[in-house]
Design a protein that fits this description.
The chain is an alpha/beta fold and about 240 residues long. Helix content is about 35%, strand content about 15%.
Length: about 240
Amino acid sequence: MQHELRRTQMLLGEEKMNRLYNAKVVLLGLGGVGGTCFEALVRGGVGQVSVVDDDVFTLSNLNRQLLSSYDNVGRHKVDAALERAQMINKQCRVLGIKAFVSKENLEEIIPLDTDYVIDAIDTVTSKLQVIAYCKEKGIPVISSMGTGNKLDPTKLSVMDIKKTTMCPLAKVMRRELKRRGITTVKVVASTEKPLVPMDIEEEAVEGAVSSLKKRSTPGSTSFVPPAAGYILAAEVIRCLSHEED
């Protein structure tokens, strides 16, 4: 066992650590939720993590995305993830895919021998396609619901999507999944009532800047999206090490 992971082995034991090392996880999305989830998976002892994202860092990512920094603005998030993994766990095999998740490339980015899929993407259509694909192929999947417009990370937890409340994204997902004959999906969701974000004027700045669409861009904090990322990673590590779904 790696010396770096001895503290984790003290809690899980050698057999469960070996299960983690032999596991293959696909993480979709490296934003506020996904970036922190990635960090926890790599530090947690998962042997192979495939990360999928087609985005680059912008200044507005700095308030919540673990992998972001001023030096990374304009850089692909996948490249930053690969570099980060080498800095914190050289034994973790990280595969990077710069792609937008769609029905057309699911077979390529989620191989049939995948042990767990983590959905940390924002696009509803892609989330639905990922869940439907995983359900069809029998691949365990967990999906992040909305973390924007929230201030209380203690209201986040793992639950079935049919038990979600106070989450506009989960409401849409429940309806659309039901139309596809899917009624049960493991998710991380918040029971906090979302706040209404205030309108703010955009400032002229140098560097890569994401455009804020006042009617659709949620407010965010440095602690709620990352907390969801840690919960996702914790659930997946627990399930993989204990051989649970």
